[in-house]
Specification:
Structural class: mainly alpha
CATH class of one domain: Mainly Alpha
Helix content: 40-55%
Shape: globular
CATH architecture of one domain: Orthogonal Bundle
Radius of gyration: 13 Å
Distance between the termini: 28 Å
Largest sheet: 2 strands, antiparallel
Order of helices and strands: EHHHHHE
């Protein structure tokens, strides 16, 4: 996937654990791990904003695009996509 998630970099810079960040953001450590490891299909803007607030950073510090040989994918039905960060 051409989008790289750098949450681990910011965690190291802030000397913060995954569990502490999950608590501050209001998501489970498991959902944060899915996002951190690049396995998420989507992230809610509210979750991204909470991550930025907790880590005192900008969205571009957490997400970056890398050119690569990723094959274009057809749009899938929205209900088939799982979003990380359901805070309900």
């Amino acid at each position: 996937m051409p989008i790289t998630v750098d949450i681990d970099v910011m965690l190291a810079r802030r000397k913060m654990s995954v569990g502490e960040l999950a608590d501050r953001v209001g998501i489970t450590p498991a959902n944060l791990a899915v996002l951190k490891n690049g396995r998420a299909k989507a992230v809610r803007f509210t979750t991204l904003a909470a991550l930025c607030e907790a880590l005192d950073c900008q969205p571009g510090d957490l997400l970056r695009w890398e050119a690569g040989d990723a094959a274009p994918q057809e749009d899938s039905a929205p209900e088939a996509e799982a979003a990380v960060g359901d805070r309900s």
